[in-house]
Amino acid sequence: MRELTPRIALELMAHEGIVTEAYRDSVGVWTWSVGITDASGHRVFPRYKDQPQPLEHCIGVYLWLLREKYLPPVLAAFGGHDPSEAELAAALSFHWNTGAIGRASWIRKFAGGDVAGARKAMLDWARPASLLGRRRKEQALFFDGKWSEDGTALVYDVAKPSYRPKGGKRVPVRALVEGLFAGEPARKTWFDRLFR
To answer: What confidence tens digit (pLDDT) does each residue in 127-183 have?
Structure first.
């Protein structure tokens, strides 16, 4: 599989959550939507500070970035291996979180045929310790095909004046994500024009 699917997008959202306006992450970086920062190439601050956006916009930009900026290096890291949907989802989740698919030894080991070594090496990226749960879910998905998404995402409000996420309400997003995929050709052109 070499394409993004709704299930892949939902899996990653299950790990990240969604914040509809700009907030400061745990190290003070302005972040928005499904963990998007200015480093992605999409300007977050001040665009979304005190400017909550509809979920459709938040998820649409996330899908655009996932496809345009994150999918190509992940596919390149697989080399000649054609990943399954589960393998692609786990690798994309890892890269979205770390930005390190190109230097991760676990993917090189996997592409080289060392599956046991790759499984073990994936957990080397569980620092800080708070990432261990996510890495274990990615590991279970990649090597055992165990999905953790349930079609919902945690949607957070922003506490002010700290601009930190607060609360978190589980919201069904499967239909919205599938709808965005259904209208993909027109939507992809629109996002390309708007955000490049």
So the answer is: 889 899 999 999 999 999 999 999 999 999 999 999 999 999 999 999 999 999 987
Q: In angstroms, rounded to a whole number, what is the distance separating the alpha carbons of residues 76 and 162?
A: 39
Chain CA centroid to CA 195, Å: 18
- Give the DSSP H or E segment for 170: strand 164-172
Q: Give residue-wise pLDDT tens across range 29-76.
A: 999 999 999 999 999 999 999 999 999 999 999 999 999 999 999 999
Using DSSP bridges, classify how beta strands 152-159 and 18-24 pair: parallel, antiparallel or unpaired.
parallel
Closest CA to 84 of 3, 13, 182: 3
pTM of the model: 0.91
Q: How far apart are CA 185 and CA 196, in angstroms?
A: 16
- Closest by alpha carbon to 107, among 119, 97, 99, 96? 119
User: Which residues have C-beta within 8 Å of that of residue 175, sequence separation ≥ 6?
Assistant: none
One-letter amino acid for residue 109 of the chain: K
Right CATH for 6-188 from 3.30.830.10, 1.10.530.40, 1.10.1200.10, 3.30.420.40: 1.10.530.40
Are the beta carbons of 142 and 86 closer than 8 angstroms?
yes
Cβ proximity of 122 and 95 under 8 Å: no
- Cα end-to-end span (Å), the chain: 26
The residues spanned by each domain of the chain are 6-188
